[in-house]
Amino acid sequence: MKPLIFTEEQDLLRQTARKFLDARSAPERVRELMDTGTGFAQDDWNEVAAMGWQAMAIPEEYGGAGYGWVEQSVLFEEHGRALFCAPYLSTVVLGASAVELAGSEEQRAELLGGVASGQRRLAVTAPADGVVGGAPVEVRGGALYGTARFVLDGHTADTLVVHAGTGGDESLYLVDGDADGLTREPMDVMDLTRKQATITLDGTQPSGRLEGAPARDVLEAVVTRAAVLLACESAGLSQRVLEMGVEYARTRKQFGRAIGSFQAIKHGLADVLVGTESAKSAAYHAARVLQEGDGEELAIAAPMAKARATQVAYEAAAYNIQVHGGIGFTWEHDAHLYFKRAKGAQLLFGVPSAWRARLADAVGF
Amino acid sequence: MKPLIFTEEQDLLRQTARKFLDARSAPERVRELMDTGTGFAQDDWNEVAAMGWQAMAIPEEYGGAGYGWVEQSVLFEEHGRALFCAPYLSTVVLGASAVELAGSEEQRAELLGGVASGQRRLAVTAPADGVVGGAPVEVRGGALYGTARFVLDGHTADTLVVHAGTGGDESLYLVDGDADGLTREPMDVMDLTRKQATITLDGTQPSGRLEGAPARDVLEAVVTRAAVLLACESAGLSQRVLEMGVEYARTRKQFGRAIGSFQAIKHGLADVLVGTESAKSAAYHAARVLQEGDGEELAIAAPMAKARATQVAYEAAAYNIQVHGGIGFTWEHDAHLYFKRAKGAQLLFGVPSAWRARLADAVGF
Amino acid sequence: MSDQTTDGRALIDQRIQQLLDEAPPATTDDQEFWGRQFDLGLAWIQFPEGKGGLGLSPRHQKYIDKELTDAGANFRNKQLNLIGIGMGGGTLVAHGTDGQQDRWLRPMWTMEEFWCQLFSEPGAGSDLAGLSTSAVQDGDEWIVNGQKVWTTIAHISRWGMLVTRTDPDVPKHAGLTYFVVDMESDGVDVRPLYQITGEAEFNEVYFDDVHIPDENRIGEVGQGWSVSMATLMNERVAIGGGTPPRGSGAISHAVTAFKEHAAGDDVARDELARLWIEAEALRLTALRASENAKQGTPGPEGSTAKLNWADLNKEISSFTMELLGSEGMLLPGGYDFSRPELTANRTPSPHRLFLRARANSIEGGTSEIMRNILGERVLGLPGEPRVDKNVPWKQVPR
Amino acid sequence: MSDQTTDGRALIDQRIQQLLDEAPPATTDDQEFWGRQFDLGLAWIQFPEGKGGLGLSPRHQKYIDKELTDAGANFRNKQLNLIGIGMGGGTLVAHGTDGQQDRWLRPMWTMEEFWCQLFSEPGAGSDLAGLSTSAVQDGDEWIVNGQKVWTTIAHISRWGMLVTRTDPDVPKHAGLTYFVVDMESDGVDVRPLYQITGEAEFNEVYFDDVHIPDENRIGEVGQGWSVSMATLMNERVAIGGGTPPRGSGAISHAVTAFKEHAAGDDVARDELARLWIEAEALRLTALRASENAKQGTPGPEGSTAKLNWADLNKEISSFTMELLGSEGMLLPGGYDFSRPELTANRTPSPHRLFLRARANSIEGGTSEIMRNILGERVLGLPGEPRVDKNVPWKQVPR
After folding, report:
1. Which of residues 243 through 262 in chain A touch B, CB cutoff 8 A?
2. Are the Cβ atoms of B343 and D328 closer than 8 angstroms?
3. For residue D53, is pLDDT > 80?
4. Which chains have at least 3 CB atom pairs separated by less than 8 Å from chain B?
5. What is the distance of C-alpha D333 from the center of its chain?
């Protein structure tokens, strides 16, 4: 098995990413973006493209830099740490994977090339509960009709990958963001740092179709990859809220003592540390298995990472509010931003018990 | 609903019981009885009969004193507190209930009268996992053949109530403890304060049959009652281990301080207190519902009490070992006796999740 | 004792009749009715005559309220001016002067004047006695500077119960003094404090050279801690009350969510059953506590309820989001940065309840403090070594 | 460095060859083989020449062991005399005199003499430095009185590593002195300590006026704490080692119990999956820790393993009993009050493992102490106010 540690190059990538995000995804900036309709800033998107983040996920033959999922896992950890607001998961993991797995050479060249250069943002009507089933959209006379909810960044994507049709007709259709008959409505999400949309198609003409693999197989793979990267994001988030809690517990004094000198808080934070390290191990492993393309092991590693890391992150973020006491319950403090992002990651694409059931299937008990 | 508090008479009963058990079921005595094959002392049995414990559970018309389950719940709490070693659950709850629910007037008079006077100890081949199903014993030519395991006090009972037969033939048979063809073998139980036996019948002639109600209905009711009284026993056990832990935490010093002054221990014991009070509430309620004979509410109250109180007791007893540290892991310290009794009560007649499923059925979700 | 009760009851019945005759609820303005009720001594029955009561046992209040409610009266005042009526009134009767009582009790009861409580500070949460807001005497006035926080209804309150530090050179509990501050004074700045729900149930209150006349001081200088304790004691009474029915509260949302979104999922069902059981056991514990209290034999069970409730409510409301699955990612209606309506019976969505529940283990005593209290006061475990005792407040690290 | 390693390797290869030539494992008695191995410096490769080593990096040991094992040698001595070889040897090399090393190292290695560790006391568990066993100097001897506990293999040991209090008038860490005690001395009484499993893995050791010659003192008088720390540091190294395969250990019993007793129960399956995941994540954490350590960049992950393992092992083994259902009420074979065999690889039943696991969060540092360590040393949180620092030991409450 690939070692669970990072190369010097990967460490450097992390440092660069952290430096960028410290500056461009600082809390006040996150709050600005939370309040926008789009949920991200085009400038940032261009800049990370210039740094090659998206390109690292794309093979060289399609204009990418041909790195792999371990590099992306490093970036996602940093995203979680910084509550990065951008259509990154939707574009780089969901969208690019769908195109990579089922697109023609031409489609790959166009769409993946666009992703790599930062010119194109994608969204996929993947099942929000992670359970791949019938398509939410019908196909009649070559046009698309229907509604898909919980489409990550669906309101801002340049191209939507829409699961539509029934039976032999079922496929992943490409729909331009400005197509006729397409309505895109942001949803009232609890976690404002990750936008989701309801998209409605009313006789919309698709601009293409991904025919290289059965739609459901593709969505299954897409959801699994998203689970792994969400786990990495969650591990980074856990680490950050642990640091926030520790920092506050070292400085906040009550009864003449730093509250972190009380065992109640000290031991609580120690438990968060234990959980965070456990979450990291699961997430790092899954990213490496994804990188290696070992499907059998991925069926174990992805559920493990998703179930464990998102649960740990939720508990860590919840405990961070408790450590902060009253101030942690206020809007102005950042604790709730992490809490809500963590809760969202726990629920997105299926709750932990759903992923545990997948794990049990894969392990065989 | 009946109030969850106790009458003065019930308080007095508790005081008397505690005084008796402090003297006669002190730890060294419990250890003596643990090491015996029978698991109890005839003297004690006679003495509690003289105090009227068994009789309190039996209606006056059968020689009892006609008290109810609330009085028994008080006694069971004290039994749990003192790790009372006696065939009490088997005789007074399992056996007497079976006879009361399905015995003829004559059988009741004889058997319940015997229970009330302390002259007769009963055992029932109730399903150890609480799931009432087919009988473990066959009936051929009027004689019994087969093996039943986990029979509480089955090796010492004067009369065994044996679930035997199939179809229309299925019934509860009475078997004398000294019947021909009956072999009784104590099992290697983890909790030595509650003995269980394997009984083997090889052409054994029953001495009677309880025909007043279908066998499975009777066993269902018997298991439910046992669950309620085990919950009461467990609540008493929780209270006792809480007291042990508190006492030790007040006196044991490390780093120049009583260990109970450290929040790690203080908060752990506070959580045990919260759990214990919760367990008591569930157990007291169930005993009152049993007393009132409200079957619909009992279908909620009994599972609630069994699932909650036995779980709390297990956790409380486990934590008591932790509070005691190394000494709590030794055979010579009493902590493990409580731990094992609690674990046994958690497993006996079905694990907590099994009872939670019953509760969900009854509540309707 | 029994005679007294009977005696009291006759007088009460007579006063109730008089009140209903003089101010029939159907045709009387609420405030006028409450005013008449106060004058007849039926507002706080245990308060002295002339101060809204008749000097009788507080046990009668339940009876009075029921009779008057049955006759058509309502007690929105008790819900909406809870801090004043539930906590302030008792404090004034116990520690206020006659003049103070006469000035404040009646308009408090009639809700002509709202009251708020100014205790917590950003730097003094669990450690309330460590508070910093200073009051310095200047002739027959006090000049107050500092900041209070978590103050409900401060923005509509006329009066605030304020604890200040008047002597930083003595140990922390000894240097406090308690005032009633006019919230309309110059230098009082009330700002909404938005919570993670996007609502502002609470306020921050800033004091910048606020003048309080010495006649608004409650109790002696340096006695602020014991007066504050009196206020907080009344809090418990005010917050207590009836036991809700089985299956109500957070667990009802969970059951609904299960039925609508997770029916047939045995794993979720088991977890729901576990939480249902804990919620019901807690409800029974509350019942048991009140029965024992009535009987005069309170046990430890009552003390466990707050901690148990806080942790359980958080757990249930979070599990409900899991039951809702993807729908749990939403906040229907979004964040509206409103002040919640001044009504006592809002029915928030499970999503909002989930967010709101995070504060349960912080407000009214953090769960850490509750465990300390259970450990030390109920179980009798020893306290920790203290670094802030017998030390002048100003020398305590903060 | 790289050159040194290569140099070392050549010498080692030559010595290995010599050893295998002179004492072919197939035809050589174990003890003779181990003795020859010691003489050739292949026992503890990092020890000085003449003391069982060649003064090379300890990283070579793995290679040596593999080569020798492949050639048919066995290292039961390392498993059975673990306390001595793993902890005692390093302590002697670091703090012992030349004569002490010459006297003790070789027979320790060859297992002619077993060693035990006499640190914990009934009154000094988590607070080891608070220990009471006294040693009083009498000419060139010390007279020891007191009691030690939790001592594995004391009953077959010839030597014990003993920490004593030699000066009660100074703060606790400063008054300790470390000795090697001859377990055959008059006044040493070793009694089996039965555990809740009914087995006696451990002993209590009583000292009643036991005489120890001053030449058996390790380190200076009053330096016992730092010598003890050296022993405990070696404990970590001794206990570490390879990462077990996926699904092994407690979780394997749970999986088997599930398949045999609970297959189809979705509730149990979910809990099993949760625990399986936590066990596997812990295993990966251990892997990650060793990879980081090898790379010279140890992170916090290694420090979390003991706590995580202890709590998880307890949970899994208890859940296994629930999976077994009624069978979990048994203890197959019963309580036999035996001393477990002196073998390193016993395979206890899940029932016995369940009982044994209760000690996991107590032995080798309680989970409470582990959380303190993680909080203070890894996270950098401040310590608690101490009442036992800078106070003469005899004045500390106990």
Report:
1. 262
2. yes
3. yes
4. A, C, D
5. 29
Q: Whole-angstrom Cα distance, residue B325 to residue D120?
A: 12
Complex-level ipTM: 0.96
Q: Residue C315 sits in a domain of what CATH number?
A: 1.20.140.10
Tell me how far apart the alpha carbons of residues B326 and B133 are, in angstroms, rounded to a whole number.
44
pLDDT band for position C299 (50/70/90)?
Answer: confident
Asked if residue C256 and residue C182 are part of one domain, the reply reads no
**Chain D residue with Cα closest to C265:** D266
Total structural domains within chain C? 3
Interface contact B196, partner D, CB < 8 A = yes
Spatial separation of the C-alpha atoms in residues B23 and B16, rounded to whole Å: 11
Looking at beta carbons, which residues of chain A come within 8 Å of C333? 188
Note the pLDDT of residue D240: 45
Alpha helices, H only, B53-118: 53-56, 69-82, 88, 96-102, 105-107, 113-117
Return the CATH number at C63.
1.10.540.10
D contact residues 151-180, partner B, Cβ 8 Å cutoff: none
Distance CA B255, CA A219 (A): 59
Reported in sequence order, the residue ranges of C150-287 that DSSP labels E, i.e. its strands, are 157-165, 176-182, 188-193, 202-213, 217-218
| Nearest-Cα residue of chain C relative to residue D273 | C267
Q: Among the three residues D237, D257, D292, which one is the final residue of a domain in this structure?
A: D237
d(CA A37, CA A40): 8
Structure confidence at residue D243 (pLDDT): 78
Can you give the pLDDT at residue D238?
44
Active site residues of D: 235
Q: Which residues of B touch D366 (CB under 8 A)?
A: 322, 325
The predicted-structure confidence for B94-136, as pLDDT tens digits, reads as follows 999 999 999 999 999 999 999 999 999 999 999 999 999 999 9
Mean pLDDT over all residues of chain B? 97
Average pLDDT over residues C52-78: 93
Encode D313-351: b = buried (16+ Cβ within 10 Å), e = exposed. bbbbbbbbbbbbbbbbbbbeeebeeeeeeeeeeeeeebb
C38 & C13 share domain? yes
Q: What pTM did the predictor assign?
A: 0.95
Task: Examine the domain organization and report whether D196 and D295 are in the same domain.
Answer: no
What domains, with CATH codes, occur in chain A? 8-119 (1.10.540.10), 123-213 (2.40.110.10), 216-362 (1.20.140.10)
Chain B hits for D149, CB-CB cut-off 8 Å, are 326
User: Among residues C237, C272, C296, which one ends one of the domains?
Assistant: C237
| Tokens of residue A278, six digits | 């456990």
Radius of gyration of chain D, Cα coordinates, nearest whole angstrom: 23
A-B interface: how many C-beta pairs under 8 angstroms?
Answer: 10
Q: What is the nearest CA distance from C329 to chain A, expressed in angstroms?
A: 6
pLDDT < 50: residue spans in chain A: none
Using a CB-CB cut-off of 8 Å, the residues of chain B touching D150 are: 326
Task: Please give the residue range of the domain that contains residue C211.
Answer: 115-237
* Whether residues D259 and D356 fall in one domain: yes
Is the pLDDT confidence value at B218 over 50? yes
User: Is D374 within 8 Å of A270 when comparing Cβ atoms?
Assistant: yes
Q: How confident is the model at residue C236, as a pLDDT?
A: 55
Q: Is C10 on the interface with B (CB under 8 A)?
A: no
Kindly give, in sequence order, each residue whose CB lies less than 8 Å from that of residue A236, ignoring residues fewer than 6 positions away.
Answer: A76, A77, A78, A79, A80, A81
Q: Does C377 touch chain B (CB under 8 A)?
A: no
Distance from CA of A195 to the nearest CA of D (A): 30
- Residue A169 contacts residue A139 (beta carbons within 8 Å): yes
C82 plus C145 within the same structural domain: no
Q: What is the reported pLDDT for D346?
A: 58
Which residue is closest to C307 within chain B, CA to CA? B274
Q: Among all chains, which residue has been given the structure tokens 């203080």?
A: B266
pLDDT for the residue C1: 38
Nearest Cα residue to B315 out of C375, D315, D350: D315
